[in-house]
Design a protein that fits this description.
Oligomer: single chain
Distance between the termini: 21 Å
Radius of gyration: 27 Å
Largest sheet: 7 strands, antiparallel
Strand order of the largest sheet: 1-2-3-4-5-9-10
Length: about 240
Amino acid sequence: MWSISTRGIRSIHSYEAAAEFWADSKPWDNKPNAVPLDDRRMQHKSLVKNALGEYECTLFQTAMVTYAKDAVYLRCDNRVSSNMFSNCVAPAGCQPVSHKGTMFWQVSTEAGQQFLCEGVTPLKLQLVSPGIWTLVNKPGTPHEWVYDRKLGAAARKAVKLYCVWYETSLRLGMDLPTHVHGFDYAIPQICELLEKPDVLENFPALARRIGPPINAVNSAYLMTGARKKMPVPFHRLPRT
């Protein structure tokens, strides 16, 4: 992850500002549809006027913010440089936010502040009132891990005997696997363990696929729904 200098970038926060800046600027000879947003030597920071008459605030050939007469289009890119650049050319009422390495747009709407990420297409916003926007298309849906304490306690109880057996057998010198394949490979074995948690004679065979206690506990969480991914509401950022 690397950053860029934003000291010389021209601030543009509306379609009108983009149009005015374009009219007052000289395009590059080799890029007649683009004008510099910084020093003329820095062709990777540019304002591009596309065939539709929209103004694209572009960093390294990616239009991070596009101003149309009736809408604004916002892109998400997780690089630090993209976040810094977007902050300079963001429309009023919108601000890029980097959260745990993922870029979101914090947007002022009639429903309050919303944190939006790009879906299949860039975010499309329309102005409702100065600095207040409404989302026109479908955004991305971030998810977070959610833990249910009651289900988690039941899951740990179901695999407790296996965990005790494994640790005891390991101390007694039994050759048991300390690393196994991922959770998907052990689904039948986890189901068997949850259905028959007290049948000790099954444990040696189960251990070859389940492995150490941490695998049994984490897999039990997933199988019982104690730990699952849930969509994050737009009014806040993901917690995990």
